[in-house]
Design a protein that fits this description.
There is one protein chain. A six-stranded parallel beta sheet has the order 3-5-6-7-8-9. It has a three-stranded parallel beta sheet with strand order 1-2-4. It contains nine helices and nine strands. The C terminus is likely disordered. With about 260 residues, it is of the alpha/beta class. The chain has a single domain, classed as TIM Barrel.
Length: about 260
């Protein structure tokens, strides 16, 4: 009980080192490290700083997932591939031991139907499609999109479900999403109060229910990196998530790695 009471109470003063504390994760499958194409890293130099931060935490492989959001971040497979190429070249030139693949985080908006119907998608390992909703209002087409993705033979993953405030008083919706065949991905910062007390409570409730399939940093900038270091110094995330079927480390086990830096 001490472990859980500490998480909910947030009173623990001890600070432990963050070095290699996320080595158990394997692949960070949700972040915004690709330079200059969304609200994440603005340039290659900043991306390299964030990559070093991930390495310090024990993560040496990632899938970067820039936003695809109509009218805000109008990314395409081509813009994402170009940004990935720039960053990959920098990693190689600096002789940094870090593997980076690319995918995308698709907003369920007016254009997602077109993306799905075209089947011109940036997937994780040619299999997983990361989707998100607005934080302001529920998407009424969530289950329709989940089915459309599955009909193409792909596996949908809903990013950071704990952050959708309109679901906080309706736990059954998370069960419905899982029963529809959609996987769930936790933002690691959600186990702290970084996004607010209600998000933390929702995250810990989902963790206790064993609902998460993946974890991600969702790192955009150095503030996220610093907060992540503080969180993993304080909490044993591997122990916390031991009853959840976290699949990050096996993300590329089934296929050859096609999008390597």
């Amino acid at each position: 009980m001490g472990f859980w009471s500490n998480l909910f109470g947030g009173t623990k003063k001890e600070t432990k080192t963050y070095h290699n504390r996320l080595s158990w994760v394997g692949w960070d499958m949700h972040n915004h490290l690709l330079p200059g194409i969304d609200d994440g890293s603005p340039n290659v130099e900043e991306s390299m700083i964030l990559i070093q931060g991930l390495k310090d935490l024990g993560i040496h492989s990632c899938v970067s997932t820039p936003h695809v959001m109509a009218g805000v971040h109008n990314n395409t497979p081509q813009t994402i591939k170009e940004a990935h190429g720039k960053l990959s070249n920098a990693i190689q030139s600096a002789n940094v031991d870090f593997k980076i693949h690319f995918s995308a985080e698709y907003m369920i908006d007016d254009q997602i139907d077109q993306w799905v119907q075209s089947n011109n998608l940036c997937l994780i390992n040619d299999k997983y499609m990361l989707i998100e909703m607005s934080y302001l209002s529920e998407s009424k087409s969530l289950f329709t999109i989940i089915k459309a993705i599955q009909d193409l033979g792909y596996q949908p993953i809903l990013a950071h479900p704990e952050r959708y405030n309109y679901y906080h008083n309706n736990f059954k919706i998370f069960e419905d999403i899982k029963n529809a065949g959609c996987m769930l991905q936790l933002n690691l910062l959600s186990i702290s109060k970084y996004y607010g007390e209600n998000v933390k409570t929702a995250a810990l409730t989902l963790i206790r229910a064993g609902m998460y399939d993946f974890v991600g940093t969702d790192m955009h900038h150095r503030k996220h990196l610093d907060a992540l270091k503080a969180v993993v110094s304080k909490y044993d995330t591997k122990e916390l998530l031991k009853d959840n079927p976290i699949k990050n480390a096996k993300l590329f086990e089934a296929k050859s790695e096609k999008r390597t830096a």
